[in-house]
Specification:
By secondary structure, the chain is α+β, with helices and mostly antiparallel strands. It has one domain (5-253): Bira Bifunctional Protein, Domain 2 (BirA Bifunctional Protein, domain 2, 2-Layer Sandwich). The protein has six helices and twelve strands. Strands 1, 2, 3, 4, 8, 9, 10, 11 and 12 form a nine-stranded mixed sheet that branches. Strands 6-5-7 form a three-stranded mixed sheet. The radius of gyration is 17 Å and the shape is globular. The chain starts with a strand and ends with a helix.
Length: 255
């Protein structure tokens, strides 16, 4: 979901989801997964979890965020950014800037975030590919348990498109990201995924397009390029769909 960004204190890295997995930076098996539900507005919680990972802790968290947009720092190139962000905040859609790259991504009801943070033995290097591969496999296993076949691929026309999407046929259902942080000789990684569970894809795409239009950007997205777990469900989705998805992801993390 988010593309490359590098710095002295952190870097997001890229790789292919079908890379082989081995080594100290692989996604661990998780025996405990926290389910936080809806987090409050403010600073992104996943970066705080990344800081604690530098001290040797690790955390697996499923969480949701209030309605809003997340854009990369590269959007500061738009002269109208501050005014547009203020206007969107006034209409109940705050915009947060993130340190990694890529495109604009929505948050809100029906969207599930998975954040994994842990301490690793060394810098990203080639391990970034392995982290992405494992993260994609975890989500794909969870969706397969729900009878949804998802494969890693880019999806033209989807918001925040990248090589690390999961797609069901021609439509994106999830995006993946990672960000690394260093303190001295200590390294930690945040592996993050955003899964569309039962969100309104038409409304989400319209929101992101409104943001791009307000910036006078030429980027536009296609609602037909994304899908949700609810849409791909066999028959009518159950009332406890979000809880079922969370349980399957937790199970896949422990495999």
């Amino acid at each position: 979901m988010w593309e490359c960004d590098a710095g002295t204190s952190g870097a997001s890295t890229g790789g292919d989801c079908d890379a082989p997995t081995s080594g100290d930076c692989d996604v661990p098996r998780w025996t405990h997964v926290e389910v936080l539900g809806m987090v409050g507005p403010g600073a992104p919680p996943e970066l705080a979890w990344l800081d604690t990972a530098l001290q040797g802790s690790r955390r697996a968290v499923l969480w949701q965020a209030p309605r809003g947009l997340v854009a990369p720092l590269s959007y500061r190139r738009h002269a109208r950014l501050d005014a547009v962000c203020a206007a969107f905040a006034a209409r109940g859609c705050p915009v947060r800037l993130r340190r990694s790259g890529g495109g604009v991504a929505p948050q809100g009801p029906g969207i599930l975030n998975l954040s994994l943070t842990w301490h690793v033995a060394g810098p990203p290097g080639a391990f970034g590919d392995r982290v992405y591969a494992q993260l994609c496999r975890v989500l794909a296993r969870a969706l397969a348990a729900l009878h949804i076949d998802a494969q890693p691929r880019a999806v033209a026309g989807s918001f925040c498109d990248g090589r690390f999407n999961l797609a069901v046929g021609p439509r994106k259902i999830a995006g993946a990201a990672q960000y690394w942080r260093r303190a001295g000789d200590r390294h930690a990684v945040l592996a993050h995924a955003l899964l569309l569970v039962d969100a309104d894809t038409t409304a989400l795409t319209a929101l992101v397009n409104d943001f791009e239009a307000a910036l006078q950007s030429e980027r536009r997205y296609d609602a037909n390029a994304i899908t949700t777990v609810a849409r791909e469900w066999r028959g009518a989705p159950p009332a406890d769909l979000m809880a079922r998805v969370q349980r399957q992801i937790a199970a896949a993390l422990g495999e």
